[in-house]
Amino acid sequence: MARRRDDLPLDVQQALADAEKMMAADLSRNIHSVGFGKRTLDGQPDLRGHGVIFTVAIKGDRDCIQSMSIPRTLGDGMVSTDVIQAPPAEIELLRESDFLTRFMRDPGGQNRNCHNTPIPGGVEIQPTGQRWVGTLGCKVVRIAKDGSLRHGAITNWHVATGEVGQRMVQHGGSSEWFGEVASSPGIVFGGTNYVDLAVLDIQRTDGPYAPITHTVKPEQLTLGSYSKEISEGGVGTVVARDGRTLGRIIDGRCSQIGATVRVGYGGGKVALFKDQFVCTRQGGEFSASGDSGSMVFEYPAMRPFGLLFAGGTGTTIVSPAEYVIELGRVHSFQ
């Protein structure tokens, strides 16, 4: 099954490249993303098959969309296109000012509670000294600068601030930090990105952690243990995750692969990401503010699928697990 852009047939790769050129030429930035996935008809999967999916601004009617001159086919007429109207993708940090609103909406939720160490993935975390929270992805084995293997964990760059040495705590700014940022590929504004990632060092043996050698365990809060083997799934794969805000979700689906996406980072900053997954959930949301950093798994096999980092109404952007390995100096999951 095709998973990344290089896995797709050459005519589809060319069609995506042509779509990217249209996206780059769209100075009004009405085209938010292009990717390869299942075409739709009146919001339902279309039996006509797969094609290049353009996601455009939700404002405007079909005449406005047609004025963008999106062709019916690309790649010498061999690849069909489809258009979806949706809001732009944004990073979804949950700020301190949102805490009360979220609490009143859902005062429970074990994904927001403190947990004894070693803690599971899928729970709320926060950088010390900052006013936002996100989600702890999962435990990994990371490659240190000296080439040695050390216990680690992952979340998003924008959750952990991405600064080496930044300490991370659990719910409510707990005074005891469980890990610190060891490395990150960072975010390139004005360039190309493939993953929003911070890799944490979680080896603590002092204070309340002694004699534990790592503070995060290779389990998700409700989904349990996961495989070391990366998923081979692509379009149509059922996906699941634990997260800070929406908790346990087991009925998501990968709807697009190889997507090029503009992602808003606030303050007018927009980053371009390539070769991403777009995940959706019929009849509900796959993610919400505060779920940034969640690890997404193929379900029920529980093979690592990708790292969640952004979304808009009805869509969630997930970076393939391969980029966590390749760009994060991660040796393996677990």
Write a structural description:
Among the domains are: 1-86, no CATH class; 107-220 and 326-333, no CATH class. The chain contains five helices and 24 strands. It has helices spanning 10-25, 62-66, 99-105, 157-160, 321-327, and strands spanning 31-41, 44-56, 73-74, 79-85, 89-91, 94-95, 119-121, 124-127, 132-135, 138-143, 149-155, 167-169, 179-183, 192-193, 198-201, 216-220, 224-225, 238-241, 249-264, 270-280, 295-298, 303-312, 315-320, 330-333. The model has no long low-confidence stretch (mean pLDDT 87). InterPro entries: Rieske_2Fe-2S.
Which runs of at least 5 residues are low in confidence (pLDDT < 50)? none
What percentage of the residues does DSSP assign to strands (E)? 35-45%
- Integer-rounded radius of gyration: 20 Å
Shape: elongated
What's the story with the biggest beta sheet?
A: 12 strands, mixed
Number of strands: 24
Protein name: Rieske domain-containing protein
InterPro entries: Rieske_2Fe-2S
GO molecular function: 2 iron, 2 sulfur cluster binding
Domain Rieske: 213-310
Summarize this structure as a short list of keywords or feature phrases:
mainly beta, twelve-stranded mixed beta sheet, Rieske domain-containing protein, 5 helices, 334 residues, 24 strands
Topology:
Blueprint: H1 10-25, E1 31-41, E2 44-56, H2 62-66, E3 73-74, E4 79-85, E5 89-91, E6 94-95, H3 99-105, E7 119-121, E8 124-127, E9 132-135, E10 138-143, E11 149-155, H4 157-160, E12 167-169, E13 179-183, E14 192-193, E15 198-201, E16 216-220, E17 224-225, E18 238-241, E19 249-264, E20 270-280, E21 295-298, E22 303-312, E23 315-320, H5 321-327, E24 330-333
Parallel strand pairs: 2-4, 5-19, 7-16, 14-20
Antiparallel strand pairs: 1-2, 1-19, 3-4, 5-22, 6-9, 8-9, 8-12, 10-11, 10-24, 11-15, 12-13, 13-15, 16-17, 18-19, 18-21, 19-20, 20-23, 21-22, 22-23
Domain Rieske: 213-310
Protein name: Rieske domain-containing protein
InterPro entries: Rieske_2Fe-2S
